[in-house]
Amino acid sequence: MSRSAEVDAYIAAAPKKTQPMLRQLRQTIRAAAPMAEERISYRMPFYDYKGRLVYFAHHPTHIGLYPSGDAKGLEKYLTEKATLSFPLDEPLPLDRIRKLIEERVRLRDAGSAVRMVPASPRPAKTRSSSRAGASSSPRASRP
To answer: What are the extents of the domains in the chain?
Structure first.
């Protein structure tokens, strides 16, 4: 099976109500990154262009786009793990998605690294803060 046929099969296996949105997203990505190689990776469609460009996947309540990179204009869809989540009951913001992909391609062509930007950095949990000051080390209680 060709790599494009694998993506065809992925979309065909998705719920009927989601398939048109997945086709639109695929068409938008392919138009914005025509040189990207399309394949399946981690059981979802993936586009490779001088490295990992973007993935997408269907979920019961949304379509996810990974990694998002700098998602200007798409902040309302950005989650804590640099993932864009598009609700199934809203139209996809295809123009903004196209611009995001085009910018990622432009950065790759310029040799720039494309970094993932989390929606809201969370402070790192430390063992002491998660246990309200209780020590987990047996040495701490020794005289």
So the answer is: 3-141
